Each structure stands twice: as structure tokens, then as C-alpha cells.
Amino acid sequence: MSDLNKKSLSEIVNLIKTKKISSLEITNHFIKNIEKGKKLNSFITTCFEESVKNAKNFDSKKNFDGLLSGVPLAVKDLFCTKNVKTTAGSKILENFIPTYESTVTNNLWSEGAILLGKLNCDEFAMGSSNETSYFGKTINPVGKDLVPGGSSGGSASALAANLTPATIGTDTGGSIRQPASFTGTVGLKPTYGLCSRWGIVAFASSLDQAGPMTKNVEDCALLLEAMSGYDQKDSTSINKKKENYSKNLSENIKGLKIGIPKEYRVENMPKEIDNLWKKGIDILKKSGAQIVDIVLPHTKYALPTYYIVAPAEASSNLARYDGVKYGYRSKKGKNLIEMYENTRGEGFGDEVKRRILIGTYVLSSGYYDAYYLKAQKVRKLIKNDFDECFKNVDAILTPSTPSSAFRIGEKTNDPISMYLNDIFTVPINLAGIPAISIPAGQDDQGHPLGLQLISKALDEQKILNIAFAMEKNIAFKQSLNRWWE
Ligand code: GLN
Q1: Which of 87, 140, 191, 362 fits 148 for a cystine, CB–CB 3.0-4.6 Å?
Q2: Quick one: CA torsion of 83, 85, 86, 91, rounded to 10 degrees?
Q3: What is the pLDDT of residue 267?
Q4: Which stretches in the chain have pLDDT values below 50?
């Protein structure tokens, strides 16, 4: 089959199910692509021997009927995979081999998927460009000098370059949607609690959520269906029936009300982002949706609130990396305290240290009320804004990011300008609601731009449907010349 690179995840599943191709053939195809794609540095670990063994094993099974029958997939290196190295992009976990499997990846394997390898990411998922990874930067297949976004940058790069037919990432403040937007792919951050966090290396536990990254909306619905579901091992998991997102996908969005928040029209926003937004609005109108102006007055506080809440939780979560329980241990130090200090000093990169320092500061006695408690209260106000809007509208449309992919090194010395990238995505994590980014156009240099659809909690089907209808009309095409091969 010559044009396998053009096939979507859903098409590949059907080819395998109808026995037009074997799991082994398709697995070998992606292994070849990965080997030819080394320049992108999107993988930290590959496990081809296991992949081939599992594919052969799949092909020998009779009557297996899973959602992801025999499809090989690579996943972000934040998901613990049993007996396969899991680094979270950090030196401190460089040699960490989990003895357990995350619930989300386990769900994928139960549906018949096969692991290809682990994808590069910002260290502990802290970053917007994949440049904080201990394992080196990942390149955006859209352009040699462009970042793929972050923190799920390896996932986005591998997907856009066809090194995996689909993938999963995690999103604490935008880490699925921003890289999707930068690479011309689809990414969905589900409702907090829809996908289990068990076995995912924790960054900020009240914000972290796993989600699908795919080539199109249909694949996104399919992968979300496969990975989501109640898990009693995660105390924040939502106990509800599994949805058939892909089967229920419908492009009929007539009569739906879509809100346009005026607060997302930020200062100095490039003209092309504004035009993209207008284009999205026109498409929605043509599809029979009704456009409504809305207000989300506390939006401007979302970024400062996030950069208190997320580091606070991170500083607490990362306390476990002490050189004793697992991971890297420094050989220096005369006593236990010095060993702890050296381990953490040598094991963590600068961005992670910055977050731990901020987090420890805002949680320390005397500052806790002024920063952390205040941020929690503002978080509630941000959530209330959304609750209020969703009394009147079905979904909200915004740009996904304030710009297209930036150049490698462009923002590394300026953390604030890096943090500003998350301005449109962070409020959604603070409110715990779902949002999807879909490719919607290109800037004048041909770099992709995304639009974001947001809904109230557990309304994933609705944003998937709206995205599905928009996708048909946008007809986004990205032809990359595979310069990395
Ligand atoms: N870029 C944001 C940060 O650095 C979000 C990261 C994420 O969603 N994991 O915190």
C-alpha cells in the first residue's frame, strides 16, 4: 500500500479489521518512518522489538474486536509504561523503568493498540516549546527552525511527520492544544477527570489531563473513546458511562449557539489570528450556528493565577525526587541532606527549578494566604465566568494561540514571553472544562494556525461535532515535503 502516510487512524483501523493490511505491515511502516525521522528528535525511546512481537501476536489472534485493533502508537514520555523507560523529559528520571502501566495507556493496549515508543516533551511537561527537555529540542516538521510547541512537542512533531498515526499528550495549561495548533494537527483536552491520571508523571494534579492528538476530528473522537473511562485508582476520576464519541459524531450543528468572548481579543494580536477567528465565525454561521457575543471578565487573571497554582502543586509533587525512592542519585555529598540537595540540583533543569522555587515561595507560611489562597479564589471566579456563559451558549470559539510556531531559541531567555503563549488555553484548565484545537488556516509564511472550541464539563461530543462540521468547511491541507528524511 503506497500512500499509507495519507491514511488516518480510523482508516488504518478499518484496513486492519478488514484484513487489507496486517498489524505487522503497518507497524513496520511506522518503524521505517521513525528511523527516517531522527532529525526531528521527537522520540526519547523506541521499543521496536516489542512492537514487532506485539504486532505478530495481534495478527495471530482470531476475532479480536477493539477500537484500535493492531494499530501502532507512540505516546508522550509522561505516561508510565511497564518495563519501558519513562523519563518525563528529565535527567532525574533518565533511567526510570516503571513496574506499572498508566491507566490511559493500558486502555489503549486493551483496545488493541501497540506501543512504538516514547515521545519527547518539556521536562516534567513544563514548557511551551519542547526546549526544556533534557533529551534535546524537538523540531517542528513544518519548518527546520521552528519549535513544535510544548509540552507535548514530541507528540505533535511525530504526528505531523507521520511517525505515528495518532498519539496522546497531557495538558496542564495548553500542552496538547498549543502544539496541535503549531503543527496543523487536532488536539483535545478533556474535562478534568474524564481520563485517569493514574500512572502519569504528575505536574500540577488539579490541572493535569491526558488527551488525544490526531490528524483529524474523527480520529480524535475515536482515540478519546479508547483512552477515557472511570478508574477507581484515581480519586478525581469521574464515574460515568463510557461514550461512543466516534459513532455519535455529527456535522449537524444547526441552531447551536456559539459564544465569542471579547476578552480574547488581546493587545498586539497578529492580524492573521484575528482574520482566522473571523473565518471561523463565518464558517459557523454558514453551518447554521448562531453567534453570540459573550464576556469572560476574569480572563486577564488566568495566566497569573495559573503561574501560582501550577508551580505550587509542582513543588509539592516533585518533592518525591530525592535520590532515594527512584531515579537519579548524585554521588556527591557527605550526608543525607547534601545527597538530596545535590541530586535535585544536578537532576532538574532550570525551568523545573524555577517552578519549584516559585511554588515553594507561594506556599510558604506568611505568603500562602496572599498568593496561593488568593489564586484559588480567583480560579473560582474564572470558573464562574464560564458557568455563567454556558447558561446561554453551547460552546465558545477562540484562537488556540496568540501566534503561529515561533523560532527555536526565540523565547528561551524570556520566561514571561514563553508563558504568554498559554494565554488562550490556561483558563480552560483552571475551569476544568474541555477544549479542542483544530487546524484552521495558515499565516503568510504558510505556518499553521488553530482555532479552539470550548464547552461546559462533559460536553466533549458537542465540541467534537462542531469541530467536525468546521473541519469539513475549512478543508485544511498541509503538504510537508518530508525534508527530514
Ligand atoms: N506551557 C504551560 C507550562 O509551561 C503548560 C504546560 C502543560 O500544559 N503541561 O506550564
Answers
A1: 140
A2: 150
A3: 81
A4: none
